[in-house]
Specification:
- The protein is mostly helical.
- The protein folds into two domains: 3-69, Orthogonal Bundle (Helix Hairpins), CATH 1.10.287.110; 92-219, E3 ubiquitin-protein ligase SopA (Pectate Lyase C-like, 3 Solenoid), CATH 2.160.20.80.
- The protein contains four helices and two strands; from the N terminus they run H-H-H-H-E-E.
- The protein has a two-stranded antiparallel ribbon with strand order 1-2.
- Helix 1 packs across helix 3 and helix 2 runs antiparallel to helix 3.
- Mean pLDDT is 83; it is low at 71-99.
Length: 219
C-alpha cells in the first residue's frame, strides 16, 4: 500500500475520492472520534481517540495538499456497486459494495448481526424482526423502513437517516443513535431503558415529531 492509498483508507474512502468527499469523511470521523463523546475515565479510549484524530487530520491535510497540486494523481477506476440478493445476507455472505441500493428489499427476520451496512440505502426496506445486533450502520439510509421488532442491540447508527421509520417494539438497548435523524419515526414500545436508566445514545439526534416508546409525540 502506497502513502496515498493509506490516507484514503484512514478516511474510509475509496482511492480517487473527490476533495468534497475527503472533507465530508473528515467531518464524519471527527464527530465519531471526538473525545467528548467518550467516557472521561476510560484512558485507553481517550488515547485511542486522540490517535485517531491525529491520523484523520494528517490524512485530510495530505490529500488536500496532493489534490491541489495533482488533480489526477490517482487514476484507478473506482469500484461499482454490485447487486446482491437479499437472501445472501442470511447465509453470511459478504454484504454488497458501499452505496448499493437496497431500498424496498425484504430482509424480514434476516440475520444481519455484525454486518457492515454503513452508507447503504435501505429506505422503505422490510427489516421487521431482523437481527441487527452489533451491526455497523454509520450514515445508513433507513427512511420509511420497517424495523418493527428488530434487534438493534449495540448497533452503531451514527448519523443514520431514520425519518418515518417503523421502530415499534424494536430492541434499541445499547444502540448509538448520535446525530441520527428520527423525525416522524415511530418508537412505540421500543426498548430503550433498563428501569429508569436510558441505555441508548441520542446525542445530537433529531426527534422532532417522533413517537416515543411511551406513545408521546416528541416536540
Amino acid at each position: 500500500m502506497n502513502e496515498l492509498e493509506r490516507y484514503y483508507r484512514v478516511l474510509e474512502l475509496e482511492p480517487g475520492a473527490t476533495i468534497e468527499e475527503v472533507n465530508q469523511a473528515y467531518k464524519d470521523l471527527v464527530f465519531v472520534w471526538h473525545p467528548d463523546r467518550l467516557p472521561k475515565d476510560n484512558l485507553r479510549l481517550q488515547q485511542k481517540a486522540q490517535d485517531k484524530l491525529k491520523a484523520i487530520n494528517e490524512a485530510r491535510e495530505r490529500l488536500r495538499s496532493l489534490k491541489g497540486k495533482h488533480q489526477h494523481i490517482y487514476h484507478s477506476p473506482r469500484p461499482q456497486p454490485q447487486k446482491t440478493a437479499p437472501n445472501d445476507y442470511q447465509h453470511d455472505h459478504q454484504p454488497p459494495k458501499q452505496n448499493s441500493d437496497l431500498s424496498g428489499k425484504d430482509f424480514s427476520r434476516a440475520n444481519l448481526s455484525n454486518k457492515d451496512l454503513s452508507g447503504r440505502n435501505l429506505s422503505y426496506a422490510n427489516l421487521s424482526g431482523a437481527d441487527l445486533s452489533d451491526t455497523f450502520m454509520h450514515k445508513v439510509i433507513l427512511r420509511g423502513a420497517d424495523l418493527s421488532e428488530a434487534n438493534l442491540f449495540r448497533a452503531n447508527l451514527l448519523l443514520a437517516d431514520l425519518r418515518e421509520a417503523n421502530l415499534r417494539a424494536a430492541n434499541l438497548i445499547g444502540a448509538d443513535l448520535s446525530g441520527a435523524d428520527l423525525r416522524g419515526a415511530d418508537l412505540t414500545g421500543a426498548r430503550i431503558r433498563s428501569g429508569d436508566r436510558l441505555l441508548v445514545k441520542l446525542i445530537g439526534a433529531n426527534l422532532a415529531g417522533a413517537i416515543m416508546p411511551d406513545g408521546v409525540v416528541h416536540k
